[in-house]
Amino acid sequence: MNYIQTEIDGVWLIEPKVFSDERGYFMEAFKQDEFEANIGPVNFIQDNESKSSFGVLRGLHYQKGEYSQSKLVRVIKGKVVDVAVDLRQSSTTFGKYISVLLSEENKRQFFIPRGFAHGFAVLSEEAIFTYKVDNKYAPQAEASIIYDDETLGIDWPLAKSQMLLSPKDKQGIAFKDAVYFE
Ligand SMILES: Cc1cn([C@H]2C[C@H](O)[C@@H](COP(=O)(O)OP(=O)(O)O[C@H]3O[C@@H](C)C(=O)[C@@H](O)[C@H]3O)O2)c(=O)[nH]c1=O
Fold it and tell me: What pLDDT band is residue 161 in, cutting at 50, 70 and 90?
């Protein structure tokens, strides 16, 4: 696997090595020793999967304080644009975001450490999204920052008329009102 540091400290792109043959392909999707040697210690405790149709936008989500989660995300069907927003006040990239295309074809993975808000929008007819998290689900600590916050200025490659959001995400808060990390 190829571990690529991004312009935001702690955020990584990971490209698995894909072995194709006449049967199809094989790849190692997660390898703890390699992950830890490149990125650092991690203890993933839960695997999540969601299916979404075209235009679905989930985000920008995070869990506050001690419930913060690192996420290792990838797409097994379809294509999404995935976005991570730095909520770490001590970071030189506080309030900045990074977006990457993740697809069934490129098989890229995106590692988002604790202290970020995360979201994605579906660009294919359907997308199956899967991710590991290193902290338990804590609905009482959940927060959603509104996807079109003006301060963040995220460039989503979809028209607003195409977007489908959950009621919770339609009522996301402004970035300026979010609870940040140290
Ligand atoms: C996230 C999560 C949800 N749920 C339940 C709660 C709810 O009834 C249902 C759907 O939840 P949501 O609407 O929050 O699902 P969703 O909008 O897909 O939430 C996810 O969005 C992406 C962008 C993330 O980064 C994830 O951390 C997570 O917040 O699943 C769990 O049981 N466990 C979990 O870990």
Answer: very high
Q: Which of 49, 61, 67, 164 to mutate to test the pocket of ligand 1 (most atoms within 8 A of CB)?
A: 61
| Closest to 62 (Cα-Cα) out of 24, 105, 113 | 113
Task: Quote the domain boundaries for residue 70.
Answer: 44-177
60: preceding bond cis by omega (within 30 degrees): yes
Residue 101 lies in a domain: yes
Domain membership flag for residue 118 = yes
Specify the number of domains making up the chain: 1
Q: Is residue 128 part of a domain?
A: yes
Q: Which helix (H) or strand (E) holds 38?
A: helix 32-38
Say what the pLDDT of residue 98 is: 98
Identity of the amino acid at 84: A
Confirm or reject: Cβ of 47 under 6 Å from ligand 1. no
Q: pTM above the 0.90 mark?
A: yes
